[in-house]
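Sample intake sheet
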Amino acid sequence: MDFRLSRHAQKEIERREIPLDLVESVLNNPQQIVNEREGRKAYQSQIDFGSGRVFLLRVIVVDDVEPAVVITAYRTSRIDKYWR
C-alpha cells in the first residue's frame, strides 16, 4: 500500500524526533493494525528507540483513500493501553 504524509504528520514526526525510517518500517511491516475511529487505523509496533526501554510507535492512517494518508505518529510507553 502506498502512503503519503500529511503536513501535520510531517511536523509532528519532526517535533517528536521520530526517525522517518521507523515510521516507514511500521507502515510497511506493522506488528498490529488496530481499528480506531471510522476510517482510521493505527499501525503499531513495539520498538526500542535506543534508550533500552521499549515504546509503542503508533502511526495513525486514513486508509480508505488512495494513497493512504498518515495523519500523525507518536511513541508511547503505555503499551498495555493500546496493544490488542
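Comment: The first strand starts at residue 3 and ends at 5. The chain has a mean pLDDT of 95.
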